[in-house]
Amino acid sequence: MRRRDYLKLLPSIALACPALTSAAPGSKARFRSAICAYSFRNLLQAKTMTYADLIRLAADLQVDGIDFTTYWLPDTNDATLFELKKLAYRSGISLYTIGVRVRLAQPTPELQAAEIESLRKWLDVAQRLGASHMRVFGGAVPKGATDDQAVAWAVETLKRGAEEASKKGIVLGVEDDGGITTDAKRTVEIVTKTDSPWAAINLDVGNFRDDAYNQIALCAPYASNVHFKSEVHLGGKAEPADYNRILAILAKQGYRGYLALEYEANSDPMKAVPELVSKMRAAVQLANSA
Q1: Which structural domains are found in the chain, ordered by start?
Q2: pTM for the structure as a whole
């Protein structure tokens, strides 16, 4: 096959194999550093920090992007969003993803439709900010339902959500964050059954309650965004995260994308986040030079 003909086939291959849109084993990994707005949740909620302050901090820390948790936006008017978008551009910071409170596992068509309507609203916000990715949640298992039922409902909602996201050119990343996404197998099941190149996993390395590194490895082929944490859980206990080991897992799958530092401990994030970013950057530089 001629190279020109092969290149023409790539889009159809990606559509037939959704995992290839997230990671490609054998390809050289490419990591970009970011910070998650959620790390500064208390300051943003108390309004002692603004999103503009966060963009300036990201530039000072010399990271590449912000995982833009939207919970504390004063509004979603153009004037508000476009000022942040302009500041980010002039600061050399990519607002590459937004985080929203969409929860997929809804037991009735009416509740699923409500989540899709919320998702449409936030897809519009993501588009106006210039983000190409949006983080959503699997949600809790509804009362009286089984895990299998909850997964089926989540898949149905995510299929419809991915169709909406495709119209905006935005990837949906399902975060492993409790509920039906407590473990990697269920999270992967939701994404693979959705079977869309616009649905992937927002891989949070610190949210698995046990056997963290093996669970990270299960999710890595489907990862569209990665949350870095200071700790992971092994044997039911929290331990300092081995950044080099995590990056090696992601590199094996050819992950190309952002690593967003998300700090959830109680210490002052203005002191803790810069230290962790420095540690993460050192690991990234080592991995990128490998």
Answers
A1: 29-288 (3.20.20.150)
A2: 0.91
